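To illustrate the input format used throughout this study, we show a single complete record. The first block contains the structure-token representation of the backbone; no residue identities are included at this stage. The design step must infer an amino acid for every position from geometry alone.
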């Protein structure tokens, strides 16, 4: 695929740190513009070096506040430390009908600070399916990476299986819990327990943080031997910054662990396997729609099948044959 000159130029500018080019590229990807595949493909060679950190947890757990603190911790250069990393943030906007997070009036929103080209944040509005959202979140993260960001923070609301899929785009996943969830640690989806590399007990200024920590530890001890890595539990108060240093240390430690024995490579290959699968589905459906397999036709056939006038297996065979027919490559 040869990208048109305008896309090559745009990617050239964003790679050099042009924030406006970055914003424009992200919009193209987010809106699923026809140029998006060429754009992503042009970005791809400049990716792979950044560390992707997923932050997931219930609505209102303090994820954005944590992300903001983490971003600052990575941006600043305390003496003797080699931080000063550039940071990109992609946050799945919880105004989504899937999470209902819009009910929380007091949530933190990201701002892009004028004059800091080393930081860029984008909130993703939801559009279409969550599967599609997972894909476009990954795509936005890729564009941020191509712009040279060292660390990509991906905030998602973790309540269901689909959010877990989104969380799996990251190299390291933080699962954020808060005190006062009742038995919620118990009722946490098993999947969420599984994806956590680090547990963050945020709002530790509130009562009950030790109980949450104990419950996590209890669940961990029940889990079949986590052979190599038991996720640490870090307490934070994101509003004051308490515990952020410990969290950054845990992230660094996890990164070191991932860099051993090609664990990071294996993890990324696993993610790409899933992502390829999703990309293929999306592309196949796109082609099917282009060949007339749209909602109206679906409706028409569904009614015929329901009344016994049509055999669905034969229909699917016919339709896929049409999609894959020679000359139907567009
Ligand atoms: N007491 C206390 N409040 C906190 C802490 N961290 C965040 N908050 C508050 O909790 C509210 C929600 O914080 P956000 O950072 O927006 O939470 P979020 O998880 O990103 O929320 P959504 O994106 O809507 O799911 C805000 O009013 C924060 O100021 C904390 O450690 N302690
Ligand atoms: Mg948030």
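Output of the design step:
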């Amino acid at each position: 695929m040869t990208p048109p000159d305008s896309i090559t130029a745009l990617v050239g500018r964003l790679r050099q740190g042009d924030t406006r080019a970055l914003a424009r590229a992200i919009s193209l990807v987010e809106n699923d513009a026809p140029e998006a595949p060429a754009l992503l493909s042009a970005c791809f060679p400049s990716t792979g070096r950044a560390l992707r950190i997923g932050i997931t947890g219930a609505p209102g757990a303090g994820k954005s506040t944590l992300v903001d603190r983490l971003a600052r911790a990575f941006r600043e250069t305390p003496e003797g430390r080699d931080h000063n990393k550039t940071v990109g943030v992609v946050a799945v906007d919880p105004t989504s009908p899937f999470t209902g997070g819009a009910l929380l009036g007091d949530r933190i929103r990201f701002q892009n600070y004028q004059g800091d080209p080393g930081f860029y944040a984008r909130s993703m509005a939801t559009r279409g399916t969550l599967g599609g959202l997972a894909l476009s979140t990954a795509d936005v993260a890729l564009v941020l990476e191509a712009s040279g960001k060292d660390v990509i923070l991906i905030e998602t609301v973790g309540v269901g299986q689909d959010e877990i899929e989104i969380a799996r785009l990251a190299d390291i996943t933080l699962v954020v819990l808060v005190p006062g969830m009742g038995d919620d640690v118990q009722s946490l989806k098993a999947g969420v327990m599984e994806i956590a590399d680090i547990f963050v007990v945020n709002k530790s200024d509130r009562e009950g943080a030790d109980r949450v920590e104990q419950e996590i530890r209890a669940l961990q001890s029940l889990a079949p031997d986590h052979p190599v890595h038991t996720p640490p539990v870090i307490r934070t108060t994101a509003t004051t910054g308490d515990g952020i240093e410990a969290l950054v240390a845990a992230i660094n430690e996890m990164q070191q662990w991932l860099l051993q024995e090609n664990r990071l490579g294996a993890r990324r290959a696993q993610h790409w396997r899933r992502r390829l699968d999703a990309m293929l589905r999306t592309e196949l459906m796109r082609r099917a729609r282009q060949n007339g397999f749209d909602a109206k036709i679906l409706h028409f056939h569904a009614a015929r099948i329901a009344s016994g006038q049509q055999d669905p297996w034969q229909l699917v065979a016919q339709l896929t044959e049409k999609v894959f027919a020679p000359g139907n490559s567009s």
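Structural context for interpreting the output: The pocket of magnesium ion (ligand 2) is lined by residues 63-64, 91, 107, 155 (CB under 6 Å). The mean pLDDT is 84.
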